[in-house]
């Protein structure tokens, strides 16, 4: 494919976690804005599939996992077999990975754009990967890459679509918890897979109590099954009635709950980005003092959100091996 030929069949690849994948979906809107007739497919992880499965503007949604450790060459062969018959003319690889680069090369996709690392020599068009400098937001880095195919202009906001069945299910859960349709809801996400991101449990307990007592809103705690015990402990310690939905909702149903909500408060994690994409106002709590994982790169995208980030002066930041009990997070008070 000549570089001055307009893309016709494009495959976008982002195969990591929900926050990263959701922010990367701005590529769909940006490409369609520049090339309205282009047919766009998306390759993502099974974990993140629900974020994309309700989008009508994706021609094919394909699943490929780079989160799980496995032989990259075997993975590349599998990916190539998956892509080859689709006759894509352009691949946009948004998370650098040997399996993705090699798989797109073996699939014979004529134009392959991405970041110049992890076998970047297999790409036809590439830019340096400077994302760990944390000087821009992730969606802005996506737009920087898309300039290679002449996609420019204003950065679209990530969007998340909710199906009727998931909305009905979420409403049924709320009704079962005694939360009426006209009741404003605050959603709280107190967990994370990374302990260096978690605001102290006692703070969340105080927060839940004050939300309930001072605003009168309904409070719902969300998270995965592994966070259910944490949510239960927070509610018990708060002394107020709040709904523990951790482990009860799929990603799609979590999106439906967020759509119904007025406010989201939580750690730097995927649900924060989901809330922002649903148009919910977000209060985000960040720890760590590392440019590549800073709010400058990973804050909730959009207007009206609030980010709390209180670096404690540790340099370099030890991240999960912090010897100071993550005082950057403890410096953020409930007030």
**Helix and strand sequence:** EHHEEHEHEEHHEHEHEHEHEHEH
CA radius of gyration is: 21 Å
Low-confidence runs of at least 5 consecutive residues: none
Shape call: globular
Beta-strand percentage?
15-25%
Oligomer: single chain
Adjacency order of strands in the biggest sheet = 3-2-1-4-5-6
Largest sheet: 6 strands, parallel
Distance between the termini: 58 Å
Summarize the amount of helix as a percent range: 25-40%
Overall mean pLDDT: 95
Label the structural class.
alpha/beta
Number of helices: 12
Quantity of strands, as a count: 12
If you had to describe this structure to a student in words, what would you say it looks like?
- The protein is of the alpha/beta class.
- It has helices at residues 18-24, 26-34, 72-84, 98-106, 138-146, 164-176, 201-215, 228-238, 251-259, 270-277, 295-298, 327-330; strands at 9-13, 39-44, 61-63, 90-93, 111-115, 125-127, 185-189, 218-221, 243-244, 263-267, 281-286, 306-309.
- It has twelve helices and twelve strands.
- The protein has a six-stranded parallel β-sheet, with helices on both faces.
- Helix 6 crosses helix 9 (251-259) and helix 7 crosses helix 8 (228-238).
- It is globular.
In short:
The chain is α/β, with parallel strands linked by helices and 335 residues long.
Structural key phrases:
alpha/beta; 12 helices; single chain; 12 strands; 335 residues; 16% strand; 6-stranded parallel beta sheet
């Amino acid at each position: 494919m000549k570089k001055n030929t307009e893309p016709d069949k494009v495959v976008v690849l982002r195969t990591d976690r929900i926050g990263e994948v959701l922010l990367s979906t701005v590529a769909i809107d940006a490409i369609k804005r520049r090339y309205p007739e282009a047919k766009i497919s998306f390759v993502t992880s099974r974990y993140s599939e629900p974020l994309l499965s309700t989008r009508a503007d994706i021609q094919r949604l394909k699943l490929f996992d780079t989160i799980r450790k496995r032989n990259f060459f075997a993975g590349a062969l599998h990916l190539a077999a998956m892509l080859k018959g689709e006759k894509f003319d352009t691949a946009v690889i948004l998370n650098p990975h040997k399996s993705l680069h090699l798989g797109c090369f073996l699939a014979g996709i004529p134009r392959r754009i991405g970041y110049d690392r992890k076998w970047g020599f297999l790409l036809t068009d590439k830019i340096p990967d400077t994302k760990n400098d944390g000087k821009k937001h992730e969606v802005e880095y996506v737009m920087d890459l898309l300039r290679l195919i002449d996609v420019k202009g204003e950065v679209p906001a990530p969007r998340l679509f909710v199906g009727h069945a998931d909305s009905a299910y979420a409403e049924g859960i709320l009704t079962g918890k005694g939360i009426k349709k006209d009741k404003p809801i605050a959603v709280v996400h107190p967990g994370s897979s990374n302990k260096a991101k978690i605001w102290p449990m006692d703070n969340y307990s105080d927060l839940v109590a004050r939300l309930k007592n001072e605003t009168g809103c309904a409070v719902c705690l969300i998270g995965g099954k592994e966070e259910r015990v944490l949510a239960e402990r927070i509610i018990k310690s708060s002394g107020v009635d709040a709904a523990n939905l951790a482990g009860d909702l799929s990603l799609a149903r979590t999106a439906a709950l967020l759509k119904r909500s007025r406010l989201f408060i939580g750690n730097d994690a995927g649900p924060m980005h989901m809330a922002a994409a649903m148009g919910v106002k977000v209060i985000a709590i960040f720890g760590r003092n590392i440019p590549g994982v800073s709010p400058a790169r990973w804050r909730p995208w959009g207007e009206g959100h609030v980010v709390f980030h209180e670096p404690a002066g540790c340099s370099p930041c030890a991240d999960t091996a912090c010897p100071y009990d993550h005082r950057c997070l403890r410096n953020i008070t409930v007030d």
